[in-house]
Amino acid sequence: MRTYIQILTIFFFLIILLALPLAARGAQEAADDGKLTVAVSILPHQAAVDAISGGLANSVVLVGEGQSPHSYEPTPRQMSALAAADLWLLSGTDFETALRPKVVSLYPDLALIDGTEGVAFRHMDAHSHEGEEDQEETLDLHTWLGKDPYLIFIDHAVDALSEADPANRETYRKNGEAYKAEITREFNELGKELAGNEGRTVLVFHPSFGYFLDEFSLKQEGIETGGKEPTARVLSQIIDEAVTEGVSTVFVQKQFPVSAAETIAKAIGGRVVGIDPLSYNWLDNIREIGTALKESFQ
Questions:
Q1: Which of 102, 109, 143, 178 is most deeply packed, by most CB within 10 A?
Q2: pLDDT, tens only, 73-100
Q3: Cα separation of 123 and 43, whole Å?
Q4: Which helix H or strand E contains 269, and what residues bound it?
C-alpha cells in the first residue's frame, strides 16, 4: 500500500514539473509579442483593462470563471503568468493579502498598483440575528460592483498602462474616458428604473452587492454571515423579516450553495435568482443585476 501511494505521489509530482515549463512558455509567448502584459485579480477588472487597451496590451486574470477570491489559491500556470507580466493591478480582495509578499519576493521587477486607492470603503453590515455571535465590523472588499470604485479602478488602470507604455498613452486615455461615460450612462438609466424603491431590502446569500445597492439607496441583507451558512434558528428569523418587509426574491451568487436560499424562497413563496458578481462581461452584468432587481420589486 505504501509503495502504491509513493508511486502516485511521484506521478503527480512529475505532472506538476511538466506543467510548469508549459505554463512558463505560454506566458513567455504572450510577453514576446511586444505588447504590455497586465495582470489583474478578478474578471470584472480584466474587462476594464481590455476595454482600455483595445487590444494593445495582453491581460491575464488570476481568479477565473467559477472561482472565488475568498478561497482562491494560484496555480503554477498563474504564477508563471505573473512572472511574465509587466504590472499587476490589485483589487483589494482577500487572497491578495497572503499572495502579495510572495510575489514581491519572487518577482521584484513586477509593478504592483493598488486599483482601490482613493475608494471610500463601506463597512460590512455588523448586525446579527438572535442566537448569532456579534460580527465584527469589517471593511467591505467587494468594491468592483460599485460605480465609483469601478471608475476609480479605470483611472488607475489608465495611468498604469500609460506609464508602462507611453507610446499608446492617448489611446488608453480615450478608451478609458469612453468606457467611463458608458458606465455612467448605464447607472443613470438604472437609477431611473429603480426609482421609488429606496430603502427596500434585497436578500442575498453572500453580502457582496453593498456598493452596487448603495448607488440606489437599497439595503442588503446577507443570509451567510462570517463565511458560515445560517443555523435553522437564524433561517427562521430571516424568513420572518423577509415576510414582514415583503421580500419575494433571494439572490444567489454562482460561487455559493443554494440550499439555504431555496429554503427561504419556499417559505416566503418567492423565488431564487442566480446572479454572478464576478462575471467578465461587467457592464452587461450590471444591466442584468439591475433588471433582476427591478423585476423583484414588481
A1: 143
A2: 998 988 999 999 999 999 999 899 999 9
A3: 23
A4: none
User: What is the spatial distance between Cα 201 and Cα 47, in angstroms, rounded to a whole number?
Assistant: 29
Max CA distance (Å), the chain: 69
Question: How much is the pTM?
Answer: 0.84
**What backbone torsions phi and psi does residue 147 show, to the nearest 5 degrees?**
-60, -55
pLDDT per residue as tens digits for the range 39-53? 999 999 999 999 999
Alpha carbon distance 116, 157 (integer Å): 10
| Grid coordinates given for 117 | 486607492
d(CA 212, CA 222): 14
For the chain, which ranges sit under pLDDT 70?
1-32, 125-137, 225-227, 255
Phi and psi at 220, nearest 5°, equal -100, 130
CA distance 112 to 172: 19
What are the grid coordinates assigned to 191, written together? 437609477
| 63 neighbors 93 (Cβ within 8 angstroms) | yes
Instruction: Cell 433582476: give the residue.
Output: 292
Contacts 24+ apart (CB under 8 A), 43-47: 43/278, 43/279, 43/280, 43/282, 44/144, 44/145, 44/150, 44/278, 44/279, 44/280, 44/282, 44/285, 45/89, 45/91, 45/115, 45/144, 45/153, 45/157, 46/280, 47/280, 47/281, 47/282, 47/283
